[in-house]
Amino acid sequence: MKCRNIIFCIYLISFFCSCNKNGDKEKRFDVQQNMINIKERIVKIDTDTVEISSLGVPYILNEFLIISDYHAPHKLIHIYNKHTFEYLTSVGERGEGPTEITTMGGVESNEKERIFYVIDHGKQKVLEYAIDSVLSGSYYVPKQKAAIHKREFPVSFQYVNDTLSYALFFKVLSSKDYKPIVSKWNMQTGEVVSMNYEGHPQIKQKRVEYAVSPKYGLYVEAYWYNELISLGSLNGSLKFNLYGRNWDNENVNRNSYFRKVIFCKDKIVVSYSGEKHITNEGGIPKVHYPTQLILFNLEGDYLATLIIEYPIISFAYDEENNRIIFAFDNEIQFGYLQMDQFI
After folding, report:
1. Could you tell me the pTM of the whole model?
2. Range of the domain at 185
């Protein structure tokens, strides 16, 4: 009898230790807790010098604002002064030729060397553009930086050096499915090392956006169809899972939650919807983009919800000016928000 009691006590201790251990990695948040409407603070950016489609995406490189336009008929990349928004030049001809871009993916920055990279999924290459040479006005021929593969390839990455980038890799599972995994990527050798934590174990079809901060040693995964954000260390381990009030582990794609996520100094900023991504209006599919930004600190604690109201396609952070630059699905196509009050 005494032996049974001892075994039962050991079981209880193990159970509660396990619960505490799991609880230490879980946090809860409510996006309605601290809501601030900042629509009137959005400042419109005039980009009318160049016609940009509704799929223009902003990026920052040093003193430049780069806007990629996947649907442009000719040049796919437009460069502006990020302080004045003066148009400077365009580059990246669409086409099948050796100096052209076939199927453009993400644009990534190498600020130290004043270079930006373009993923070309059609040619399975990463192309390199030196910004000063692009601006010189001469006919610019990009270099090939790295090769990528069909069944395991980066959709975006953050460059650190030639042997280390942090990338979101798509691992193709079948003709209809893939798994996104944050990984360390050696662009010289092609070696890819996935993070130890590859996603929430209860979610069968993982769909996420990601962001990395080498400065703070952190990465974030924001789930598209689950009100969940995972915060991890760059050693590959999970720090916290952040669960919203609407969290569930179903994969029925009823609502869209998070999309673009970035680090802004010591804050994490992610766009949020909480509604259906696509609805049918009069027989015509309509995409509903996020209209809010959610702010967290580096420990994953919820801070505030900024109500933008304009549908957000994408955004980038200009740390020097402490502003977020948006691409909207609206008659105001591009705009910025000064973040001094929040960051």
Report:
1. 0.90
2. 150-194
